[in-house]
Amino acid sequence: MTEPRTILITGCSSGIGLHAAHALKQRGWRVLASARAADDVARLEAAGFEALVLDVADSASIDAAVDWLAERTGGRLDALFNNAGFGVPGAVEDLTRQAMRHQFETNVFGAMELTNRVLPWMHAQRHGRLLFNSSVLGFAAMPARGAYNASKFALEGFCDTLRLELAGSGIHVVLIEPGPIESRFRLNAAREFEQWVAPHQTGRHAMLYERMHARLAKAGPSSRFTLGPEATSAAVIAALSSTRPAARYRVTTPTRVFWYLKRLLPTRWLDALLRMAGA
């Protein structure tokens, strides 16, 4: 009997990660689902998952998770979905070095470190899939999202480089680029703003923050283009199923539209559109 393919997914407490875990489990994958909080891990276990505590912003937590994986899988992992992430909203001039470091520890450094820890396993088995949850903001910046924009731009550069370096190895690197997806992202962003940016406001962006607060507090979809997490899961499934996966899977209409506009429009015109979209 053929053993099921094994995938580790980070950030499975809700939203994209949780839905992808369920979708892949239904398709016969052995899903190793991780979350930062023990309560979330307990809920994942109650739902039938092999679950573990993993905070990718903490190297010691990554060490413990890799040890757990080695014991459970014998050092075999078919795929990794680096999904864990969040956004620190705020104007660039109100972002401290500490806020930027906090943003990058999870969105960039954690994904890089975890990837590098499991890559030797994939090299040994001569195959693997490395999926990274990026964003439309990984290539099209919008105002009041400087920390998140920068983290996703950095993640995309890391992945593009890794894809070149792994050519011919049997290991594929894939970027998933969602636009607006139903999740706890806005709720979490509001909390991050209050902790990291609100105490350092210059006052120049009061009107911008007033609009931002209203948007973050709004219940329901953030726009008429918002899709459920099943849209992202479909891209994940496609990336894992294809014999030759694409380098990028663009999810939602805004992502696809801005991908082409960035290549067609002069920078001034694109800036004007991005300012309106970001507002």
UniProtKB/TrEMBL annotation:
One Pfam family recorded for the sequence: adh_short
Q: Keyword check for Transport, yes or no.
A: no
For this entry, the protein name equals SDR family NAD(P)-dependent oxidoreductase
- Gene source species: Chitiniphilus purpureus
State whether keyword Lipid metabolism applies: no
Concerning its family, UniProt says: Belongs to the short-chain dehydrogenases/reductases (SDR) family.
Q: Which InterPro entries match?
A: NAD(P)-bd_dom_sf (IPR036291), Sc_DH/Rdtase_CS (IPR020904), SDR_fam (IPR002347)
- Keywords (A to Z) from UniProt: Oxidoreductase
